[in-house]
Amino acid sequence: MDNLIQVPLNVPDVRVLSTQRTEQDHWLIHVESMLEGTQCRRCGREIRDLHGVDAAVRLRHLPLFDVPVLLEIRPKRYRCPSCSGNPTTTQRCEW
User: How far apart are CA 78 and CA 65, in angstroms?
Assistant: First the structure.
């Protein structure tokens, strides 16, 4: 018998990469943005030149069976080819 259950995350534009239990017995769900591009923080243009990812950010989500749930995402960073110095901008998800 399979003891697997599935619960919708209800967070738009993300893909679940993995799940694990922490030492504190919380659920930690690693996600990544499925959106491509962001607006340059300097000029406001849409940019799509992926530069890498930023440091991981953990966000508290709704508990599951009274167990705390955390989402961990490494926001994508994009480089602007139009601005001098080619600055980078971190993608911000609406949620």
Answer: 38
Cα–Cα dist 14/93, whole Å: 9
Look at residues 16, 13, 18 and name the one whose alpha carbon lies nearest to residue 95: 13
Beta bridge partners of 21: 27
Kindly tell me the sign of the dihedral angle through the C-alpha atoms of 21, 22, 26, 32.
negative
pLDDT single digits (tens) 7-50: 888 899 999 999 999 999 999 999 999 999 999 999 999 999 99
Contact at 8 Å (CB) between 30 and 75? no
Q: Cα separation of 24 and 60, whole Å?
A: 14
* pTM across the whole model: 0.85
Contact call for residues 39 and 89 (beta carbons, < 8 A) = yes
Do 74 and 55 touch, CB atoms closer than 8 A?
Answer: yes
